[in-house]
Amino acid sequence: MKYISTRNKLKEYNFLETFLNGLAHDGGLYVPKKYPNFSKKKLKYLSKLNYQELCFEIIKPFVENTFSKKDLKKIIYTSYKNFETNNVLKFSKLLDVHLVELYHGPTLAFKDIAMQIIGNMYENILRKKKNKINIITATSGDTGAAAINAIQKRKNINIFVLHPLNKISQTQRKLMTCIHSKNVFNIAVQGNFDDCQNLVKGMFNDYDFRMLINMTGVNSINWSRIFSQVVYFFYAHFKLSKNILSKSVFSVPTGNFGDIYAGYIAKKMGLPISNLIIATNENNILDRFLKTGIYKPTKVIQSISPSMDIQVASNFERLIFDYVGKNSQETKKLMENLKQKGFYKFSKSNLKKIKRTFYSNSVRSDEAKKEIKNIYSKYGKVIDPHTITAIKSINKLKKHFDKNTNYICLETAHPAKFRENISKIIKTKVELPKKIRGLIKKKERYCILPNSLEKIKKYILSKSLQLHF
Prior knowledge:
Largest sheet: 6 strands, mixed
CATH architecture of the domain at 90-107 and 223-426: 3-Layer(aba) Sandwich
Helix content: 40-55%
CATH class of the domain at 90-107 and 223-426: Alpha Beta
Structural class: alpha/beta
Shape: globular
Radius of gyration: 21 Å
CATH topology of the domain at 90-107 and 223-426: Rossmann fold
Distance between the termini: 34 Å
Number of strands: 16
């Protein structure tokens, strides 16, 4: 399998290049030149596999011969050995809506599912190449903890995580900053998540700096994050559908567009997904885009679902690339308009095509609180503030779908990660799982830095040089 950039489809890359680069040197995002497509016979075979076996079958085409079959299987089984359930995720139900619990990994969020795979892939590759790298990533709350957990104490890797100061939950922060490992560096940026994301992109786009520290990233701009998440769309559909060829609608809490984009890839690979629902909070740029065709970031609004407090959804560029007919020059032009003019406008015909697959809905914090309280009161189930946007959205949009559709909602985080807010909403104390109680009592380690590319580069350079060069 060959990969191309969304901003230059003429140059081809192998998987190893896309994995280690993270972001293409032209500023674009890597996508496969062609996707595997599973026949009905293949889907029937895949539906009988356990999660780890299914993961191997889906990931194998994307990684080519980077890993032997034996090594890839070891990477997968090692990645999930510490999850609370043998099959990685669990299921529950609210009336006719199936909930996919994706939070049974070490940091209680769906990010663990892909990040554990990535951590073990890095270790395998670096051991063979005898190379050293510095990972730099931005987090709106969950990516950082999952990445740190996956990378901590590994040889030949540093990880620097930028999070927005005072704009994530206390538990989210402590799951990052209470990890005491010499290769982990937490940076609290005086700004919002979009600022953090722009700082990381700025470092990626500084070729000399990028090469000097051998920089890579584990945000969902890294293609390996996407294909690792494709797996649970297949697994959930197989386990929850009436038969493997019946249609499913997935509702996904959406910030940076990586998780729902994985669902889109699953559909392209032959999974019978009829529609995908983009569930957002007040920071509803994608909801506005689907209604108007105009992609225009506004000021970030702080909400009770901090991991979705995003105005620039990085992975959306991959979808745009597809819907402009894989025209890299057109994609590049739209991204330049966004940078220079502050917005871009999509053609009516292409927007119409997107809306055949995607629906969207925005849920404000006051609505989310009311719904969390209502569900707890009626069913005794505690829902996190991100997942609630997906539940409310799928219930609102059911009228658009066939009555025989499987309604599936991704439950992306354990409610305990937001226990301060949720405990107030349901008037009941939300307890932390035992496995993290001891961790978050440890002393926190992080530095506070201004929203300055040069100052943050200087800090990272000093630490990366100190340990690696």
